[in-house]
Amino acid sequence: MGQKSEPPGFDQVYVLGLDHRGHPRGARFSVLRDSIVSAAMDMNCRILIRQPADVTALAGKLPLGYVHGTGKTVRLLIPRIGYDLYRQILEAARTARIHEETRIAAAISMTVH
Description:
The chain is of the alpha+beta class. It has one domain. It is built from three helices and five strands. It has helices spanning 34-42, 53-59, 83-111; strands spanning 13-18, 24-29, 46-49, 66-68, 75-77. The strands form two sheets. The chain has a three-stranded antiparallel β-sheet with strand order 2-1-3, sandwiched between helices. The chain has a two-stranded antiparallel sheet with strand order 4-5. Helix 2 packs antiparallel against helix 3. The longest helix is centred in the last third of the chain and has 29 residues, at 83-111. 20% of the residues are buried.
């Protein structure tokens, strides 16, 4: 059961990781399911959900991933990607996380006098 198309306006789920040889792999999925996240975690991948626009723009270059199987146990096909794209997406996600944490800390400090 593979994904053929993407629903319009849906928050993508991005999966990034390294295979057993250290080659970067990455894919995007248009369906958020526990089985997909669980399978990605079993593969020691990073899962990016609801990312800001700059991360989404880079991660949109990822190929569609494929889900094999149904139910609780599935296998993911995550294609190889270029190291530069892998690095750029992770760096953008890291930067976005730092900005979000800083924004939250600033909001908390303003409300707690």
